[in-house]
Design brief:
Length: about 220
């Protein structure tokens, strides 16, 4: 009896785990993104305008590809890790674009020897961290969408947090290659977003129960 139960359990697990596929492809930017934005001073002494730093990443690496559809898991990140941390270093936010799931905490870590004044006025998650020094600070984001971040002291520091309603998202490599793995079989809307392009692109895609589907994307 026990052996039969174990076989049935294993068979059910294998059948369930097999009902997922991958989405792969390459992203090409056909449009030129606008210049990085400049913020405003936030009642902070010693502010400076300075120059916009050269990007540490290519523009295609700032693209976020994400799925929308029914019954997609959305798991918030609540413990500090590389996937939900923004570092301030050399008067730059790193990364320039941080994709996270809805309900996640984003941690801000200042590695400069002077304070910053991190803020956002974006509707999905406005916040302000005044005189942010060496202490790691965090902010929760319970609304989905684009959150634009600036420093009120160094006004040309600019970054974005993109909050999604599912675990199924990624950013391309420098070459434009991307992969979203282990997507439950079904039909979804696939979105292609870049923070400084006019509007996101949308595609319909059907994910097979096994294997992968290739979809090259242009924005």
């Amino acid at each position: 009896m026990q052996k039969t139960w174990l076989v049935a359990l294993l068979s059910g697990w294998l059948a369930t785990s097999a009902q997922a596929g991958d989405i792969t492809g390459k992203v090409t930017l056909e449009s030129t993104p606008s210049s990085r934005k400049v913020g405003e001073t936030r009642a902070s002494a010693g502010y400076e305008k300075g120059d916009v730093p050269n990007p540490s990443e290519s523009e295609v690496e700032d693209v976020v590809i994400y799925l929308e559809g029914e019954k997609l898991d959305c798991t918030p990140l609540t413990k500090m890790g590389s996937k939900n941390t923004i570092v301030q270093k050399n008067k730059e936010f790193l990364p320039h674009v941080l994709p996270v799931t809805k309900g996640s905490k984003v941690f801000f870590r200042n590695q400069d020897p002077f304070p910053h004044h991190v803020y956002s006025v974006s509707q999905p998650g406005s916040f302000e961290i005044v005189k942010h020094g060496s202490t790691v600070r965090s902010q929760s984001f319970d609304g989905s969408g684009e959150i634009e971040i600036f420093c009120g002291i160094h006004t040309k520091m600019n970054a974005y947090i993109m909050v999604m309603n599912s675990n199924y998202f990624c950013s391309p490599s420098r070459s434009g290659a991307y992969r979203i793995s282990s997507v439950p079989a079904g039909q979804y809307s696939l979105w292609l977003w870049h923070p400084r392009l006019p509007k996101p692109a949308k595609k319909s895609i059907t994910v097979p129960a096994t294997g992968s589907v290739t979809l090259d994307l242009k924005i």
